[in-house]
Amino acid sequence: MYHLIIDCDPGHDDIIASMVAMAHPETFDILGFTTVAGNQTLEKVTSNLLKVQTLLETDYPVSMGYDVPIIKALEVQPLAHGESGLDGPALPKAERKVTGLHAIEFMRETLKRSPEKVTFLCIGPLTNMALFLKTYPYLKEKIEAIAIMGGAVNSGNIRLKSEFNIYHDPEAAKIVFASGVKIIMAGLEVCYAGSIHLSEAEQANGRGRASQLFYDLMQFYDRYAIDRGWDRTAIFDMTPLIYLLKPELFETREYEVHIELDGEYTRGMTVVDLAKTENLLHPVTVLWDVKREEFIQVLFDSLDILDRRYQ
Ligand code: BDR
Ligand code: CA
C-alpha cells in the first residue's frame, strides 16, 4: 500500500494518471493533491483539478503550491494542453475548494501525522518538491520514494535534450535529484514505449463517466500527435503511477542522474551516467522499458472500475 501525495499541474495526462490512482484504493491511499504552475498557471491547473473532482464526485484535499519556478520565468504549454490547461471536456463548475494550506505546509502536516512513510508522485515541474525538501529536510526520513515523470535518457520534447517538467524548473530538479531520497524516474523514452494508439483511445467513447472523461480529454490531447502525423501518443504522467501499481510490467536500471543547469543547448537535461554501473552515489531507478499492451490494459481496466462506481 502506498500512502500517496500527487504533486501535479493538470494537464490531460495528470488527470488520467490521477484517475488510474483513484481506481485502486487497495494500492493507493491518496492523502491529497498539491498543485504547481507548469502546463498552465497555478490558478488554472488548480481549478481544473477541482472541476474534475466535482465531476468524479471525489473530495481529496487540494493544496496550491508555487506559481513560478525557483529562478526561470513561467512558460506554460498551451500547445499541448490548451488555454485552460485542460481543453476538451465540458467540465462542471467547481464545487470543491482548496485547503487553504500552501502545498509545502500540507506536505509537512501530512508527513508529520502519517504513521507510515509517504510516497510522492511528481508529475509536474519539481518546484514544490524541491522547496519542501529544502525547508523541512528532517522530514526526508518520512518519504518512501519520489516517483517522477520527467527527463529523458537521450532525447527531449521541449528542447533538443530537455523534457518539459525538468526544463521548466531545472534548479528544482537539481535539488530533488541530489536529495538522497529514493527517486524513480519515468523519462520520455519509457513513456513513448507505453504509447497508446489513437484508435485504442477511441474505445472509451460512449462508456461510463470516467471513460467518457478520458475520451473527451484525448479528443484534444491527440491533436498534438495528429498534427505531426503520428498514430500514437504517450500519456506521460501515468507511467510512474502504473510502475508503482504493476512494477512487473517494467524493466528498470539504476544510474546516477545529474541535472544540467548551464548548457546552451542542454539546460534542463537529465544527464544519465550510463557508463557508471558500480559505487553509485545516489542511484536513481530509471524506468527503461514497459510491456505496452499490458500497460494500456491497466488504463482501460482502471476506467472500467471507475465507471462502475457511477452506475
Ligand atoms: C510532461 O509535460 C507535461 O506537458 C505533461 O503533463 C507531462 O507531465 C511531459 O513532458
Ligand atoms: Ca504533468
Order of helices and strands: EHEHEHHEHEHHEHEHHHEHEEEEH
What's the CATH topology label? Answer: Inosine-uridine Nucleoside N-ribohydrolase, Chain A
Bound molecules: beta-D-ribofuranose, calcium ion
Q: Which percent band covers the strand fraction?
A: 15-25%
Oligomer: single chain
Order of the strands making up the biggest sheet: 3-2-1-4-5-6-12-9
CATH class placement: Alpha Beta
Q: Classify the helix fraction into a percent range.
A: 25-40%
Give the overall silhouette: globular
Mean pLDDT: 97
Provide the CATH architecture: Alpha-Beta Complex
Low-pLDDT runs of 5+ residues are: none
Secondary structure elements and their pairing?
Blueprint: E1 2-8, H1 12-22, E2 28-35, H2 42-56, E3 62-64, H3 78-81, H4 103-113, E4 118-122, H5 127-135, E5 143-149, H6 164-168, H7 170-177, E6 183-186, H8 188-193, E7 196-197, H9 198-202, H10 209-221, H11 223-227, E8 232-233, H12 238-245, E9 250-255, E10 257-259, E11 270-272, E12 284-290, H13 292-309
Parallel strand pairs: 1-2, 1-4, 2-3, 4-5, 5-6, 6-12
Antiparallel strand pairs: 7-8, 9-12, 10-11
The structure holds beta-D-ribofuranose (BDR) and calcium ion.
